[in-house]
Amino acid sequence: MRELEYPFDSEYLLKKKRSIKKALLSEGEPFTDKKIAVFGGSTTHDVIAMLELFLLNQGIRPQFYESEYGRFWQDAMFPEQELLEFRPDLIYIHTSSRNIRRFPEPGDSPEQTRRLLEQEFDYFRQMWQSVEKKFGCPVIQNNFELPGFRLMGNKDASDPGGRGYFITSLNQMFYGYAQSHDNFYVQDILYLSASYGLERWSDPFYWHMYKYALCVPAIPELAFNLSNMIKSLFGKNKKALALDLDNTLWGGVVGDDGPEGLQMGPETSMGQAYGEFQSYLKDLRKLGILLNVNSKNDMENALAGLNHPDCLLKPEDFIVIQANWENKDRNIQEIARVLNILPESIVFVDDNPAEREIVRSQVPDVAVPEMGQVEHYIKMIDRSGFFEVTAFSGDDRKRNEMYRDNAKRASLEAGFADYGEYLMSLEMKAVIKGFEPVLYDRITQLTNKSNQFNLTTMRCTQAEIARMAEDNGFIDLYGRLGDKFGDNGVVSVVIGEHQEDTLHIRLWLMSCRVLKRGMEQAMMDVLARRCRKRKISRILGYYYPTAKNSMVKNFYQEMGFEKLREDDQGNTVWQLSSLEQYQNKNLYIEVAE
């Protein structure tokens, strides 16, 4: 919904929140259902109302548990039965500097301040550890905004007795905890309040009148930022950019002005702005964001612009370059096809409002930010939160390399008449093993991101992955695939629950970038061997249809299962019995277990 895209009208959202919610729920789009507990050190009602709108717009339908005013610590330490039965998928702890129990005083020594910091940090640490033990779900805790006054003026920031010094130091202790604890995340309201304007953000009127820790007009900003963290945790991030060239990556039209007439680089103010934007995009690439070109241009001219000495982005920085005279919505669909991702994973960036509107109307799942002047391009993409980072793995760093290797594989495939010969030529090697702690983060990412090859779309937290890995009642497998072109990383996950003589497959997913290479057969072979080792006589597989996973509707049939039943919604149950007679299906991959 356009009203909920950045930049939004906060006053309008607060005023129309009920009608907007009704419209979102009536659109008929499929949702991922999540339970979210909100523990507040201040009033949180409107925070929850705004958060619900943004999450619905991002495909997540939340159910909330809201603690009573000011009882954030008590709910975490001594949860009521209602909260325990609620079993949240995520807990958000909303506090502010007003919830700091004691500040140092002017003249306090560094040692006195250090002891006070440890006491205050321990208060929060006990709460986080209690939540982890009782609920085992992700926790988002905000840091603290700076105080609304400075008793010692500028010295307040550097003196051990200053409130500014104390808050900054306490925030650093929060960051240290986040770095050493998985499933714990810090929402940066220190930045949000500074960006919004601390004086407006912390307007004391709203505290004294309504017990809101921030001004009501800023609540949508807080909620939108929080929703980006949550959708990232639950696998709703974007993966790729489709970028226009003329007057988007550089100033000017390469076909008219020639490469020498383009504005980029340090010579002009506009050139500097375009250069800064290119540098930002290059940094996004380092995060694993896939860069692609979608430009109405001759390929020769597009490459001439990208090869300009002052152009920071070179042709090799892009996975797909669509420089032609096709409609841009068709080019986006082609980019999605080549990358083997859904169009909804793409952000289209173009300076031309007409082109943006065409893409919005023809490919509505694609994100299309409103691009203004070039000097605001970075802010527009950055504040929209398309690529919010809550986890960053080695596979993320290598994602561009992996997709580029995929393009090489596709080129090689075109030269083979026999597909089996092509697969043999890849010289594929796989590692298929039980879950390992070092990979919990990546496995969790996969469970929350994979949609097309995902039979049950079960979403898992890292704590749940760890619990199942340590429980002998489960068989868990991850699959890592490499070939002569490179390493694809962890690409497949299977989780089965062992009950009596049967293994129930609760989750089977695979990254779409390795489809039709035999990895599913290799995983099936290893799963069958693990079952035989445990004296399991049959496997039950489940398929739950969604709007995105129709490609695996007949997966179990292809693996040799027989269908037991199907309900009115298309949910199916499949059985593989006589495991002792199971014949290996993998023909092309060398597997290490």
Task: Describe it.
A hairpin with a 2-residue loop joins strand 11 and strand 12 (486-499). The mean pLDDT is 93. It contains 24 helices and 17 strands. The protein is globular and about 80 Å long. It has an eight-stranded mixed sheet with strand order 15-16-14-13-12-11-10-17, sandwiched between helices. Strands 2-1-3-4-5 form a five-stranded parallel sheet, sandwiched between helices. Strands 8-7-6-9 form a four-stranded parallel sheet. It is of the alpha/beta class and 593 residues long. 41% of the residues lie in helices and 18% in strands.
Question: CATH superfamily of the largest domain, called what?
Answer: SGNH hydrolase
General form: globular
β-strand amount: 15-25%
**Multimeric status of the protein:** single chain
Q: Major beta sheet, specifics?
A: 8 strands, mixed
| Poorly predicted regions | none
CATH topology of the largest domain: Rossmann fold
Q: Topology, pairings included?
A:
Layout: H1 10-15, H2 17-25, E1 32-40, H3 45-57, E2 60-66, H4 72-77, H5 81-86, E3 90-94, H6 110-135, E4 139-142, H7 163-180, E5 184-187, H8 189-196, H9 198-201, H10 204-210, H11 219-233, E6 240-243, H12 254-257, H13 269-286, E7 290-296, H14 299-306, E8 320-324, H15 328-339, E9 346-349, H16 353-362, H17 377-384, H18 394-397, H19 399-413, H20 419-425, E10 428-433, H21 440-449, H22 462-470, E11 474-483, E12 486-499, E13 502-510, H23 519-533, E14 538-543, H24 555-558, E15 562-566, E16 572-576, E17 589-592
Parallel strand pairs: 1-2, 1-3, 3-4, 4-5, 6-7, 6-9, 7-8, 10-17, 13-14
Antiparallel strand pairs: 10-11, 11-12, 12-13, 14-16, 15-16
Helix pairs in contact: 2-3, 3-11, 6-7
